[in-house]
C-alpha cells in the first residue's frame, strides 16, 4: 500500500517512501519534511512533466534502465529530472543516450544543457564532437561561433575548455605510452585520432563512445597531468579560428 502521494501537473502519483528515500537523497530530504505531519504526505512536483516523472519512478522501481522506453526528444528533459533527484545511474543512462544523437544541428544546445546541469560525461563528448568537426561547424552554424567567441557561459570559458581538452588528449598521448608500456602503444596504433579537425562529420572517439547505456566509471585522462594553457596560446588560437 502506498504511503506518499505526488501531485504532478494536477495528477496524482502514488509511491512508497522506503523505495524513494533509499534511492535518492533528494526524495529523502523532501519526504523528511513531510513525515512530521502525521498523515499521508502530499508532495507537489513543479517544473517536471508527468510523463517524465513516471520515467523517474520506473527507474526507481525497476532498479535500472532495462527495457526503458523513452522518446529521444525527451532524454534531455529526463536528464534534468535525474539530476534534480540525484539519481546518478539515470544521469549516466541519459548522457549515453544523448551522446548517440549529437549532430551538427544540436551539439550547441546539448553542450549548453550538459554544462548547466553538470553532466560531465556528456559535456566531454560534446567537446570532442566540437573539436573533431570544428571546420564544418564554423561554416555550418553561426551558433558554434557564438558559443566559442560570444558571451561566456556562467563560470565557464568554452574556448579555454576546448583547448584544455585538446591538449590533454592529444599532446599528452606520449605520456600514456610511457606510463602503460607496450599495451598502450598497441592500442594507440589502432585508435583513430580523438580530435581530428576535419570538415567530415564523424563521432568523436571519447571514452563514452561505443559504450552501452551503463557507462563505466572510467575517465580516460585520469593518468594525465592537468595541462597549462596560457593566455597567449588562447589568444593565438582564437585569432586563428576567427580568420
TrEMBL record:
At the top level, the lineage of the source is Eukaryota
The record's annotation in SUPFAM superfamilies points to: POZ domain (SSF54695)
Task: Please give the CDD domains that the UniProt record associates with this protein.
Answer: BACK_ABTB2_like, BTB_POZ_ABTB2-like
Q: Which residues form the BTB domain?
A: 2-63
A Pfam family in this protein?
BTB
* Gene3D superfamilies per the UniProt record, alphabetical: Potassium Channel Kv1.1, Chain A
Q: What is this protein called?
A: BTB domain-containing protein
Q: Which organism is it from?
A: Amblyomma americanum (Lone star tick)
Amino acid at each position: 500500500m502506498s504511503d506518499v502521494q505526488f501531485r504532478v501537473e494536477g495528477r496524482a502519483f502514488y509511491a512508497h517512501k522506503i523505495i524513494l528515500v533509499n534511492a535518492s537523497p533528494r526524495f529523502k530530504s523532501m519526504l523528511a519534511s513531510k513525515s512530521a505531519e502525521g498523515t499521508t504526505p502530499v508532495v507537489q512536483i513543479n517544473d517536471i512533466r508527468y510523463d517524465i516523472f513516471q520515467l523517474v519512478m520506473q527507474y526507481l522501481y525497476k532498479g535500472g534502465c532495462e527495457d526503458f522506453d523513452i522518446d529521444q526528444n525527451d532524454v534531455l528533459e529526463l536528464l534534468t529530472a535525474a539530476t534534480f533527484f540525484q539519481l546518478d545511474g539515470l544521469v549516466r543512462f541519459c548522457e549515453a543516450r544523448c551522446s548517440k544523437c549529437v549532430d551538427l544541428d544540436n551539439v550547441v544546445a546539448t553542450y549548453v544543457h550538459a554544462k548547466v546541469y553538470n553532466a560531465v560525461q556528456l559535456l566531454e563528448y560534446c567537446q570532442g564532437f566540437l573539436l573533431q568537426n570544428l571546420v564544418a561547424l564554423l561554416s555550418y552554424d553561426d551558433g558554434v561561433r557564438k558559443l566559442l567567441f560570444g558571451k561566456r557561459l556562467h563560470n565557464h570559458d568554452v574556448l579555454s575548455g576546448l583547448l584544455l581538452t585538446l591538449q590533454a588528449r592529444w599532446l599528452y598521448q606520449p605520456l600514456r605510452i610511457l606510463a602503460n608500456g607496450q599495451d598502450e602503444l598497441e592500442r594507440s596504433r589502432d585508435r583513430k585520432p580523438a580530435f581530428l579537425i576535419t570538415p567530415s562529420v564523424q563521432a568523436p572517439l571519447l571514452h563514452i563512445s561505443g559504450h552501452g547505456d551503463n557507462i563505466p566509471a572510467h575517465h580516460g585522462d585520469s593518468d594525465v597531468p592537468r595541462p597549462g594553457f596560457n593566455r597567449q596560446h588562447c589568444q593565438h588560437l582564437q585569432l586563428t579560428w576567427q580568420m
